[in-house]
Specification:
Length: 396
């Protein structure tokens, strides 16, 4: 079975076509600037040169038509007919409490995804647009929704309920949901495979560290707790997001600066994190270079980020009473030896001992510890598209 994986953003669309007989990627691509001047698709068939298609793309349906045509094109296509696509797996950011696993999309599921728009106003609408465009172009092809929040639905109430009046949970479902669930699920399962153990017997802390970052406690293959909350703003300091702050800071800044709530919300999401502290960049590569050149605020930004990650790792180890593996993934986790080293530094009391010579790797699976009595420290590149494809295949 060949499965098309779709990840729709407001002005972008990522896709992969995966042959599930061997889990090989046949083609992948990225459409950018949808509905904006200068729109284009970068289409990369495996074993062939990348093709850049530049033409006006007013909406996601137009993009998907171009993508589907590219997949069957005689020059740079990878399949002979659309009939070879057995199913489509869609990434959907928010499923609320309605979905604890991936589901085949029907009218009831579509309505439930729409009902969650209040919880993810920036993400669910483009996800819905992508699904509806695919249904129109491929009406006889089964579709599956894979939710970022579903993996975390195994959390117990004492981990997801906020200490505010309970009526707000009852009325508006204000609670911790967590995100990056597909990534945390994939790397925890992969860690168990690498270790040759049943995931039901393992306690794993997974660190998805990128421009958006989160940490997850995975006990017996299930999410026990995670750092992101009602929205992706909670938790770690990130590229541009503040993460955990005293909520009283919000009205204080509004009063002192004469800012509206929308302006403060924008500031916390887009102008804070390591960008806000450093004043330089939200890109951790830029910050590491600036730190090496003696920029103290760049160093401080990285120190704050590392400190937050370390606190969550320690808290989750304490909660689970034991840790068998610490996993680093996503852009920073996979590529920054400096961040990995600093996160592990000082955690020797928990059995977390990183080896500098093993840590000098980028973007590939690796063990970072030699001591077999210590906690397994692994780098595992995330593969959310493959996880989506696997869930889709299992359901279809």
């Amino acid at each position: 079975m060949k499965i098309l994986v779709i990840n729709c953003g407001s002005s972008s669309l990522k896709y992969q076509l995966i042959d599930m007989t061997n889990e090989n990627v046949l083609a992948k691509g990225l459409a950018e600037r949808i509905g904006i001047e200068g729109s284009r698709i970068k289409h990369k068939p495996t074993g062939k040169e990348e093709v850049v298609i530049e033409k006006p793309m007013d909406n996601h349906k137009v993009v998907l038509e171009i993508v589907l045509n590219a997949l069957v094109d005689s020059n740079y296509g990878i399949i002979k007919s659309m009939d070879e696509i057995g199913a489509v797996g869609h990434r959907v950011v928010h499923g609320g409490e309605k979905f604890s696993e991936s589901v085949i999309i029907d009218d009831n599921v579509m309505q439930a995804i729409k009902d969650c728009i209040d919880l993810a106003p920036l993400h669910n609408p483009p996800n819905i647009v992508g699904i509806e465009a695919c249904k129109e172009l491929m009406p006889n092809t089964p579709m599956v929704a894979v939710f970022d929040t579903a993996f975390h639905q195994t959390m117990e109430a004492d981990n997801y309920i906020y200490p505010i009046p309970y009526e707000f949970y009852e009325k508006y479902k204000i609670r911790r949901y967590g995100f990056h669930g597909t990534s945390h699920k994939y790397v925890s399962l992969r860690a168990a495979e690498i270790l040759g153990k049943d995931i039901k017997d393992l306690n794993i802390v997974t660190c998805h560290l990128g421009n958006g970052s989160s940490v997850c406690a995975v006990q017996g293959g299930k999410s026990m707790d995670t750092s992101m909350g009602f929205t992706p703003l909670e938790g770690l300091a990130m590229g541009t997001r503040s993460g955990d702050i005293d909520p009283a800071i919000i009205p204080f800044i509004m009063d002192k600066e004469g800012m509206t709530f929308d302006e403060v919300n924008d500031m916390l999401n887009k102008k804070s994190g390591v960008l806000g502290i450093s004043g330089i960049s939200s890109d951790f590569r830029d910050l590491e270079i600036a730190m090496e050149e003696g920029n103290e605020r760049a160093k401080l930004a990285l120190d704050v980020f590392v400190n937050r990650v370390k606190k969550y790792v320690g808290a989750y180890v304490a909660t689970m009473c034991r840790i068998d593996a610490l996993v680093f993934t996503a852009g920073i986790g996979e590529n920054s030896s400096y961040i990995r080293e600093k996160v592990c530094e000082g955690l020797e009391c928990l059995g977390i001992k990183i080896e500098p010579e093993l840590n000098n790797i980028r973007g590939k699976e690796a063990f970072l510890n030699k001591d077999l009595t210590a906690v397994n420290i692994l780098v595992i590149p995330t593969n959310e598209e493959l996880m989506i494809a696997r869930d889709t295949k299992a359901l279809i």
